[in-house]
Amino acid sequence: MLDTTARIGTPEGIELTLRVAGPVPRALAWVLDLLIRGVILVAIGFGAGALGQFGAAVMLLSMFLLEWLYPAWFEVNWSGSTPGKRALGLMVLHDDGTPVRWSAALTRNLLRALDFLPFMYFLGYCAMVSNRDFKRLGDFAANTLVVYRDEKPRPLTIPEAAPFAPPFQLSAAEQRTVLDFAERSARLTPERSAELAEIASSLTAGRSGDAATGRLVALANHLIGRR
């Protein structure tokens, strides 16, 4: 794998490629949401302080709603993002790539209590780093993914080279891998690019170094129809 992605096939035969968010951006989004909830709670506290026992009840109810319904409401009504997630460019989706709905949003957020155990989301962190989609326990239960939001399609930028037809027929997944490599090759060091290219020895005919990279880039040019 060239990066951490989730590939999802739709009933229409279209393959979606989603960039999965890891623990660090998700933790930063959680901290931002925590600060926002804290500011809201402080503001409510100023007004509730003059209401005596009724004000105390308002505070308790506000704490409950902000802790458990704030994330779910935003994820359902803000295209899968809380304010913190939106600031970090993240969103929640179902495993099949569809927008998250109330049942899944409530499930993943209510199970944060389990992910928090024994302290500071330790159990949730252990679950995230043990699977390639960085799912915490709430995500497993709700069948959800946290991914990066792509605001606009990224253009395919494959370096130009004399096209070269593959020596044998490639599957759709193999073609996608060649194209992904060619697109990213310009952003990799020559050593790392050659290391990855040499893995596909059946396509590079045993070439090494820059020659192996060049052969895969040439294959990619053939796949996108350059002449």
Structure description:
- The protein is mainly alpha-helical and 227 residues long.
- The chain folds into two domains: 5-148, no CATH class; 172-223, no CATH class.
- 56% of the residues lie in helices and 9% in strands.
- It has eleven helices and four strands; from the N terminus they run ββαααβααααβαααα.
- The chain has a two-stranded antiparallel sheet. Strands 3-4 form a two-stranded antiparallel sheet.
- A hairpin with a 5-residue loop joins β1 (5-9) and β2 (15-19).
- α1 packs antiparallel against α2 (52-77), α2 packs across α4 and α9 (190-197) packs across α11 (209-223).
- The radius of gyration is 23 Å and the shape is elongated.
- The two termini are 28 Å apart.
- 25% of the residues are buried.
- The mean pLDDT is 89.
Q: What is the strand and helix layout of this fold?
A:
Layout: E1 5-9, E2 15-19, H1 23-48, H2 52-77, H3 83-87, E3 90-94, H4 102-110, H5 112-116, H6 122-129, H7 137-142, E4 144-148, H8 172-185, H9 190-197, H10 201-204, H11 209-223
Antiparallel strand pairs: 1-2, 3-4
Helix pairs in contact: 1-2, 2-4, 8-11, 9-11
Tags for this model:
227 residues, mainly alpha, 2 domains, 11 helices, elongated
Overall number of domains: 2
Query: How large a portion of the residues is in β-strands, by DSSP E?
Result: 5-15%
What letter string, H or E per element, gives the SSE order? EEHHHEHHHHEHHHH
Low-confidence stretches: none
In short:
56% of the residues lie in helices and 9% in strands. It is mostly helical. Helix 2 crosses helix 4 and helix 9 packs across helix 11.
